[in-house]
Amino acid sequence: MAGKIELMETVLRDAHQCLVATRMRTDDMLPIAAQLDDIGYWSMETWGGATFDASLRFLKEDPWERLRKLRAAMPKTRFQMLLRGQNVVGYRNYPDDIVQAFVARAAINGIDVFRIFDAMNDIRNMKTAIEAALKAGKLVEGTVCYTISPVHSADYFLSIADKLAGMGVQTICLKDMAGMLAPYAAYEIIKKIKSRISLPLHLHSHCTAGLSPMNYMMAIEAGVDILDTAIAPFSQGASQPATEQVVAALKDTPHDTGLDLGKLGKIADYFYRVRRNYAEFESPVNNQIKTDVLVSQIPGGMLSNLVAQLRQQKAEDKLDAVLAEMPQVRKDLGYPPLVTPTSQIVGSQAALNVMTGKRYSVVALETRNYVMGLYGEPPGDISEDMKNKVLGKKEPINCRPADLLKPGLEQARKEAGSLAASEEDVLSYALFPEIAREYFLSRDSEGKRHQAARQ
After folding, report:
1. CA 327 to CA 298: how far, in whole Å?
2. Which of 25, 36, 164, 211 has the fewest Cβ atoms nearer than 10 Å?
3. CA distance 162 to 17
4. How many Cβ atoms sit within 10 Å of the Cβ of residue 65?
5. Do residues 266 and 15 touch, judged by C-beta distance below 8 A?
6. Three-class SS of residue 114?
7. Of 292, 341, 362, 283, nearest in space to 320 by CA
8. Three-class SS of residue 93?
């Protein structure tokens, strides 16, 4: 059994991604940063996932500037980010030179812990990012994406963790991104990993199905070392268990976190007020216990964004039909774990199947690329009939997808030209050319207005 349990706080990243569609602004983070820094978390998740492109796309904020400002305001706490392996913080594979440069600049700007995963649990897609983070002298969490299917088992998850340990990672993370993990499954998997691998084990789980608090208690019994939690106003539902809940449950036990409930209460008071600023992005779906996630398997971070997208198309009434279609699409695609970008691929194709009324009459480009093998190796087999339907006479690739990509950083630098004011700008452009260009133009226009006003 574990001793003291450490906590990672998710309020500045995953929690608001899950509950208010990734819309929390930096200006709402900075006033509470010093108090968060004083808590004593093992780490604070501040960056990565969907926050990078949401900052540029929706908030017209520079994600690099957010990181620097938070780092200056929170000098004591480890900063952690979620990195999608070869997808970096995007939705496709990028060339190795872009992955390496991004990790190096993220480390320079303040990231201490890189949680690196691949949606397919394809180790080949994590290798470059892991090596780059280790080269930068940072902590690397090799991540195992949890899911349920006929091809996934406790031994399967152990084998992925074993391979990651062999690559030199310093911690292992079991990532239950869709909230499907059940208490006894958590115990079995964690017990197996801890009996075989001596590294600290970090559990990430969502409350979508209402199981996570029970998972956490069983995980502690099995020997877990670190748990992900969210301050109460941004907890539960599609987010993580409440930080205060876990701290209170473990108080005066051998697993006592040592964190101060009084201090946490003051932080909670602040975030209760902040959450009201994002009422337009709220949805009852994100705040309810939804055991149907065990069928649809949609991750919390995607759920709020899927609702927002359907709402934009005035098709929110189709949500249940899309969720019901997702398990069949997932089966057709070889049972990938549903996490970015595979969750978007399965979700988009399920939506197309529902909206058109005929399955695969329209096939999304991303679905085609997935079946081609451009996202990695599926955990299960894709039927020949499905391949023929999607690819026609084309044959899937059998190499590491990024091996087919030419270096891209210098080309991005050339294309961005004078719009890019820094190496970070070049990387933003390399990852999201159109979105970054629009942001740079908006930023330059704003800067000229401020200059004119001063004159």
Report:
1. 9
2. 25
3. 30
4. 14
5. no
6. strand
7. 292
8. coil
